[in-house]
Amino acid sequence: MKFLCVECDQQMTFEERQLPGDGTLAAAFRCPRCGRAVALLTNPMETQLVASLGVKIGGTTLPAQPLETVRGMVATGRDDAFADGVRGRGSGVRWSADAEDRLARVPGFVRGMVKRIYADYANDRGIAEITPAMMDRARSELGLEGM
Amino acid sequence: MPLNIRTYHDLTEPDRSGLPDQIGAQRRRVAERLATVGRVVAVMSGKGGVGKSFVTAHLARALARAGRAVGVLDADLNGPTAARLLEAPAARLAVREDGVLPALGVEGVKFISMDQLLEDGRPLAFRGPEQESFVWRGAMEAAALREFLGDVVWGTLDLLLIDLPPGMQRFAELADLLGAAPAVLTVTIPTPESRDAVRRAMHAARDRGSELLGVVENMVGGAFRGSAADDLAREFAIPVLGRVPFHPNDAAWQGIVDSALRTPHSAP
Questions:
Q1: CB of B155 closer than 8 Å to CB of B70
Q2: Model pLDDT for residues A56-69, shown as the tens digit of each residue
Q3: Chain A contacts of B131, Cβ < 8 Å?
Q4: How does the average pLDDT of chain A come out, rounded?
Q5: Which domains does chain A have, with CATH numbers?
Q6: Residue B119 is inside which H or E element, if any?
């Protein structure tokens, strides 16, 4: 998927991805010559179709977690299906109380994976403490719809 | 006057999304994971209710008793039974950095099944818009199959049995994910109705390039009458690997394993 600024005849560059939380997705692209930005807006069905392929518009910076699509998308998973006992590379990152509260609201089926994704994101960027604001940023940047 | 728009391939800057690369990486992950698996065999019938899962689980157990390292991937995502058939219904999956460890069933058979992941009695349901779910649900199930193949740390196996649901959709997905159609073990019951349905599936598998290893006839000696296994074996020039009575014992399964091991092409 590429975007062309027709006026400048210039390929636009990916700027950012946003997940408003209503099942839709926005991906913004900007023309490096004239600075004009356009947004690709997908409806819930289109967003879901992309998610079902296990790919992310705009690319991804973190490697896929084991069973990421299953854990992220199955709605009827049992809370105790997984034993996420193994420590990842982001295991030394601190969690604020608000961030822990928010994590606790994530269904048990996916919680361990979500925790590791945020911790790896923070670790890779040298972020010492995970906060709700950082979680929002990571969620959009990584395309973690619903996490 | 139409705009002069360059095409996708005219634009030389890389595609930041790189969707084909992401798909390619998924395929490589499957291939790398299965590099330590000696052979992948799909257990198939194309017909529901003939006992594919039952045969898969018991063949896996018999092979394990014969000293083979065996895994079972339950690809029947909507009717999973492997956990119960392998007597490990409460098995939980341990997550490691490099993947998910398969559960360990009776007699050391490694397995993964949606059975382990779903709430008791609940169907497989995905988060997402219910309207037009037919557009994306198939792709979501194929993604689950891909992750079962590529994200489970199977380790060194002589044989990975893949228990397919009725129909040919999952078989096609499996062939795509593996990059080549897997060898197929066919299960039927004796009736002509089963024979006719299974025959279609076998033609589809053979047309796709699968090696047909043989036929197992299940539920023999009871109410079901017919000669499905013999008919299919004759038509496809493959062996009848065994006939399973309604209440088989270990010796019956061992007989099938012995028969399979004696057949050059089907030996795991």
A1: no
A2: 777 776 777 889 88
A3: 45
A4: 86
A5: 1-54 (2.20.25), 60-147 (1.10.8.550)
A6: none
B118: β partners: A77
Q: What is the pLDDT of residue B268?
A: 53
Contact A45 B131 (CB under 8 A): yes
- From B136, which residue of chain A is nearest by alpha-carbon distance? A49
Say yes or no: B116 contacts chain A, CB-CB below 8 A. yes
State the pLDDT at residue B264.
Answer: 56
Mean local confidence (pLDDT), A106-129: 89
The answer, yes or no, to whether residue B96 has pLDDT greater than 70, is yes
Contacts with A2 from chain B: Cβ below 8 Å = 8, 11, 13, 15
Average pLDDT estimate for A12-35: 89
> A133 CA to chain B: closest CA distance, Å?
24
Residue of B3, B100, B117 with shortest CB distance to A74:
B117
**In the prediction, which pLDDT does A146 show?**
56
The yes-or-no verdict on residue A140 having pLDDT over 60 is: yes
CB of A82 within 8 Å of a chain B CB? The answer is yes
Helix (H) or strand (E) holding A102: helix A97-104
pLDDT of residue A57: 75
Taking the C-alpha atoms of residue B39 and residue B171, their distance in angstroms, rounded to an integer, is 16
Residues of A with Cβ-Cβ distance to B8 under 8 angstroms: 2
Q: Which of B3, B97, B136 lies nearest to residue A45, judging by beta carbons?
A: B136
Instruction: Give backbone dihedrals phi and psi of A62, rounded to 5 degrees, phi first.
Output: -105, 145
Q: Is it the case that residue B133 has pLDDT exceeding 60?
A: yes
Q: Answer whether A41 touches B (CB < 8 Å).
A: no
Which region holds residue B108: left if phi is over 0, alpha if psi is between -120 and 50, else beta? left
* For testing contact with chain A, the best of B119, B131, B152 (most A CBs within 10 A): B119
Average predicted confidence (pLDDT) for chain B: 91
- Sorted by where each starts, the structural domains of chain B and their CATH numbers stand as 37-262 (3.40.50.300)
The phi-psi region of residue B48 (left if phi > 0; otherwise alpha if psi is between -120 and 50; otherwise beta) is beta
Is it the case that residue A86 has pLDDT exceeding 50?
no
Please give the Cα distance from B113 to B76 (Å, whole number). 8
Q: Provide the pLDDT for residue B141.
A: 95
